[in-house]
Amino acid sequence: MKTLRLLTILALGGGLALGAYWFSNEGSWSVHAEATPAAAQANRAPLYYRDPGGAPLWSAAPKKDDRGRDYLPVYDDDQAAPAAPKPAQAASSRKILYYRNPMGLPDTSPVPKKDPMGMNYIPVYEGDEVDDGTVKLSPGKIQRTGVKSEPVERRAIRVAVKAPGTIQLDERRVSVIAMRAESFVQKVADVTTGTRVKAGQPLMEIYSSAVASAAAEYLATITSKTVGGVEMYGRGSRQRLVNLDVPEPVIAEMEKTRVAPVTIHWSAPRDGIVLERSAIEGMRANPGDVLFRIADISLVWALVDVAERDLGHIAVGQSVAVRARSFPGRIFSGKIAVVYPQVNRETRTVRVRIELANLDAALLPDMYVDADIDTADGAPVLAIQDSSVLDTGTRQAVLVDKGEGRFEPREVKLGRRGGGYIEVREGLADGEAVVTSANFLIDAESNLKAALKGFAEAAPQASPPGHATGEHK
User: Fold this and answer.
1) Number of CB atoms found within 10 A of residue 390's CB
2) Can you tell me the distance from the alpha carbon of 437 to that of 347, in angstroms, rounded to the nearest whole number?
3) Which Pfam families match (predicted)?
């Protein structure tokens, strides 16, 4: 590269020096003028050397660019002013630690410089960095990012446990009518499967030779021994009728009329719905044959399957809201009666029994339902909002608002979750304020400042001997 350099010295009053002019073979002119006393310039050491073409490049020692041009020295009075003007007295009394990238990138410089977009690097003064582990933000940045804090309070945590299931009959409210001796069905009442019956309502007439024989024996006993009465002489004969499952009203009627009936009228033992009718007029019923099955469905069970992971939140007596898929807008309230002591090895679920009132018989056996179990134990615990937690997967932390724009990252141990809140078991005290909104922005600022501090501490070690440390006065 062929370079022509002209040097002209003008002595004007104070011996000012006019800088150099040069012309490159590409045909472009550039000028660098210095207006400093010649004697002072000879004794001054440059802070650094910048690219002669204006590119964001600098060097701690003299060098040339790729076109052979010398890097230009920059002295104290040539530095660019900070982005935010400060009072002269305050700026001179504070030491500049380093300059950080104006766009927030993890790039620092010990001396002033510009980024590729021409923006000045921002000085970081001594005192702006805190060593107490807190993050400090300006009021303007807090307002722009929408940072909000909320004090830690004690509240009841409600963990929503949902479980599917089906409606089943209460085993204690099912009755069957079966013959205990060989019998014949003489007549069946107008009762069919699905019919609602009342306790004592006639169902059928039965003839049984065993029942007739026992009835005759009982009547003979109580009529012949009138002195001692039934209690002394007729107890065994009466017990035989009871063992044959003769209804109590039939026995009472025999004692009153002293007449043995030819057929026995069998009645419903309870209020309920006829689930099964096997009795047919004229049929022969062997001992053990079930002729009717009646169930009281005013109280039913909801058998739901709770996931194994939620088993620790389930306890007997907890309230449950059950929704039947057949009645989307209706809620049936009940309580947990039994938690079955067995885990299904295929589904990893535990069966839970919920007792439900069913006065209008809307819930039918084998109907699908969904249960919402209220697991609140009533004891308030220290809790924070879900949005307050910064979860890395291996540890959880929150940002404690210390006031005056300072935020302290603090690790916490969490417990139950529910209703938008999380139980805090360790790490926070009642009344402390934690950040609930824009906490991830503060976390990013904290990580950025930690990275910048690491760059700043490493920068002086990487600088050559005698290089300026970036102190700005």
Assistant:
1) 18
2) 39
3) Beta-barrel_RND_2, BSH_CusB, CzcB_C
Query: Could you tell me how many residues make up the chain?
Result: 473
For the chain, the C-alpha Rg in angstroms (whole number) is: 48
Dihedral, CA of residue 41, residue 45, residue 48 and residue 52, to nearest 10: 30
Sequence letter at residue 408: E
Q: Higher-confidence residue: 419 or 189?
A: 189
- The H helix count followed by the E strand count for the chain is 8, 32
pTM over 0.85? The answer is: no
Task: Say if residues 464 and 60 touch (Cβ distance below 8 Å).
Answer: yes
In tens, the pLDDT along 18-49 reads 333 333 333 333 334 343 444 445 567 777 78
DSSP string, 404-467: TTEEEEEEEEEEEEETTEEEEEES--TT-EEEEESHHHHHHHHHHHHHHHHHHHHHHHHSPTT-
In this structure, the strands spanning 332-343 and 202-207 are unpaired
Residue type, 332: F
For residue 320, give both structure tokens.
């449950």
Terminus-to-terminus CA distance in the chain, angstroms?
Answer: 39
Give the pLDDT confidence score for residue 260 in this predicted structure: 87
Task: Please report, as a single letter, which amino acid is at residue 319.
Answer: S
* CB-CB neighbours of 268 under 10 Å: 23
Can you tell me the distance from the alpha carbon of 297 to that of 294, in angstroms, rounded to the nearest whole number?
10
**3-state SS assignment for residue 218:** helix
Nearest to 128 by CA among 99, 87, 168: 99
Residue 425 contacts residue 413 (beta carbons within 8 Å): yes
DSSP line for 65-112: -TTSPBPEEE-GGGSPPPSS---HHHHHHS-EEEEE-TT--S-EESS-
Domains (ranges, CATH) in the chain? 143-156+380-435 (2.40.420.20), 160-170+297-374 (2.40.30.170), 199-276 (no CATH)
The helix/strand/coil state of 256 is helix
CA distance 193 to 201: 15
Tell me how far the alpha carbon of residue 319 is from its chain's centroid. Answer: 21
Check residues 255 and 295 and name the one with the higher pLDDT. 295
Helix (H), strand (E) at residue 185:
strand 183-188
Q: Which helix (H) or strand (E) holds 235?
A: helix 235-243
Determine contact, residues 210/182, Cβ cutoff 8 Å: yes
